[in-house]
Amino acid sequence: xxxxxxxxxxxxxxxxxxxxxxxxxxxxxxxxxxxxxxxxxxxxxxxxxxxxxxxxxxxxxxxxxxxxxxxxxxxxxxxxxxxxxxxxxxxxxxxxxxxxxxxxxxxxxxxxxxxxxxxxxxxxxxxxxxxxxxxxxxxxxxxxxxxxxxxxxxxxxxxxxxxxxxxxxxxxxxxxxxxxxxxxxxxxxxxxxxxxxxxxxxxxxxxxxxxxxxxxxxxxxxxxxxxxxxxxxxxxxxxxxxxxxxxxxxxxxxxxxxxxxxxxxxxxxxxxxxxxxxxxxxxxxxxxxxxxxxxxx
Length: 297
Ligand code: HSE
Hints:
By secondary structure, the chain is α+β, with helices and mostly antiparallel strands. It folds into two domains: 2-153 and 288-296, Ribosomal Protein S5, domain 2 (2-Layer Sandwich), CATH 3.30.230.10; 158-286, Alpha-Beta Plaits, CATH 3.30.70.890. Helices cover 34% and strands 26% of the residues. The protein contains ten helices and eleven strands. 47% of the residues are buried. The structure holds L-homoserine.
């Protein structure tokens, strides 16, 4: 049996819409082996599709078809700690888990870069699938079915508070609220900040992160879909974070803070309780600089 551990991811990192993403220390696990029929089991009772529409199965099958290998049957088991439809890369984790597992079962016919390309095309953008596979902070452009990317490892003194609301937000819904066009000055605003975000995270110039997290491409349009999101972001700044932003398409928020900031977690927890948001989850995560890990059980 092949066992694959896949990290959660936080796409956009504020201004880097569809181009920046980072991997975090929250994991899904996919176990798979060839069998004579298709069977899918959720080890933790998470509500996942148990038929051939299951994303792990679909991506496994897709890769077999692409490599000209038949897939008569497959036994899949999933352990899903990444919450679904919360902007933490659960779909990408399934796609990457399926593809990496499939590649392993087939004897690794595909290179890492080929899987990066195929996964990004399947998802439509590279900012979750690429860091899910290789970890770290990834800057990526998907052009003509090829991902051009740079991975940077991030220092582990940074912590990432994932504030996870008690409601789902589908990426398709959060993309549908975006405008077709934006003013030229908003484009300028974002590209300067996306560049500043990537290099500041990499170089450790964390005092830039607050300005770098500014965004006019997606967060202003999506915030209405996240009731209390604005208040939660303000709470994170008041509690001493460097930067806070909507993770991916939402609904989760990420606050980046230094682990020297005293009581950050407690302050945010208390603040959420006071706002009546005690049902929202708060996880303190670290960067995952490794990406997928494959183990043979
Ligand atoms: N960059 C994508 C978006 C990530 O913001 O729509 C969604 O997973």
